[in-house]
Specification:
disordered N terminus; alpha/beta; 9 helices; 5-stranded mixed beta sheet; Ubiquitin-like (UB roll); 341 residues; two-stranded antiparallel ribbon; elongated
Amino acid sequence: TLFRSGGLSRGGWGGGCSERARHGESEDTGAAAMKPNQVEILDARTKEKLCFLEKVEPNATIGEIKAMFHKIHTHWYPARQSIRLDPKGAMLKDEDILQNLPVGTTATLYFKDLGAQIGWVTVFLTEYAGPLLIYLLFYFRLPFIYGNKHAFTSSPYSVVHLACACHSFHYIKRLLETLFVHRFSHGTMPFRNIFKNCTYYWGFAAWLAYYINHPLYTPPAYGDKQVKLALVLFLFCQMGNFSIHVALRNLRPPGSKTRRIPLPTKNPFTWLFIFVSCPNYTYEVGSWIGFTLMTQCLPVGLFSLVGFIQMTIWAKGKHRSYMKDFRDYPPLRSAIIPFLL
């Protein structure tokens, strides 16, 4: 959450342009009786006409109209396009059908450039590979971090090695889920977001790794009991998080954007769906609480707090979306914390 296209003179827009867009013309008489629509696309900011499409079939989708627009303005590929009914209105979905929209014979749509886009898989792989590698630099105590005196030395405390194993496990899990589990409803995100996201993940990883692996680090106040309890919480929540991701994957067939109400399955970890809309976030927060207790490290606690705030925002947004889209949505559910948030 890089750039807007140069002035509207690019590509000789001047007085606009047109294309005869014949979309799946039918040969039967019933289809012939349907009058095709015309679509004009204006710039949402300047209101200048960018394109005029003739003979667009009424059952054409917004996704198909984007493809027609892309043929004329090739630098604006479909993922960059935001098409809407009003210059400041909500973005139309690719699956929205032209004849179902409140438009006349000539539909006026507004275009906004979303900027350069990047695939979600690429973003996630970059975000998660960084913390994994950065943490290991501190764990192995490279000379430029703690000085030559402590270069490549090993901590005498088992919790430091356990923390490294847990941290590595977490991000390896995320990388594998990105490759083999997650199905994304949106294929891309703004390219500029990768810098913000990487700064967050990579920066926090370096900060907490610096203190956990520092030669002066001291183990938790309550010793092994605290560490073991924290480890159980961490692993339990990691399993829960993975189980929810698999359940969400099974809700959406490959290549589909169909949304269904997520429900508990036979897997006990998914029973949290009874109480919250986004149990994957609940388990994620629980994992980092466990890691905080395990390391008793302030930067880890702050990372957990910031992550909890962000995930609460996401969870509330998804919860509102579920409530809006499904009239029979379970009323007992909260967003992320049962009965509270």
